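Recap quiz, item 2
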Amino acid sequence: MNEGQVRIGVIGMTLEEVKEILNAQVIFAPQDLKMEVKMACGCDLMSDVLAFTKEDSLLLTGLTNLQVVRTAEMANIKALVFVRGKEPDRETIALAMEKKFPVMLTDLPMYEACGRLYQHGLPGCSEAEEGSSLADGR
Amino acid sequence: MGAEPCFQEAFSISGGDFTNAGEVSSRVKKILQELGVDNKIIRRVTIATYEAEMNVVWYARKGTLTLSVTPDLLRISVQDEGEGIADIELAMREGYSTASPEIREMGFGAGMGLPNIKKNSDEFHVSSVVGQGTNLDIVIRRQ
């Protein structure tokens, strides 16, 4: 893909691709990074995550407390990316591990992290179809 | 409610316990998964339950959340002893909030709690007495 070319509507993106695009560090991965996300949401307001995301989304957030993982659990979010290089609290990582959520950390600010993923074809929650809601045992 | 519940369990919620906030909703999710409830329905229940649980943690001394499951519907009732809600109509409005800075730091307090519960419910009733507490009754049909 050429620089600046926008490619929207790709079905899913693997966490491996997310990691490369965001130049992210993997803090925790319960399995390999072949797992796919269908869409993404960038948000620091957890109530908005609960209100506006769909299943199988990737959540990018600058918030680092326990409630991020709780919210992800309730909203069937698939994986978490912490932006702006803000490392999550130890309790947050422990809960993410217990709930088996992949967690990544990128130094990019929110706007740029979201922009890069969007440019590479990962749609937002208002554009993408709801996930297949396969039971993940969480 | 028509049929007798085939499953019922009550959970205690402690006001001010931010570390365990969400634990009850997590248990509700697990139970519904074990009961074989459809995943889309589970998501609606857990979002409503979680918002309700967080409200008890923030605004009440303690509360009880009761989950009842029948073949047709899921009912979540939440009763708390706490501040209560002075103006329910106002509290139901998206964006209206009385949240403290601490609540906002946790990513909540944007005035979406009760509207979010309503959005995920088929039936939703709130009653409250200021200075005593709040009762929520949430019904979500399984079909």
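Chain A has five helices and seven strands.
The helical segments of chain A are 15-21, 46-52, 66-74, 90-98, 110-119.
End of item.
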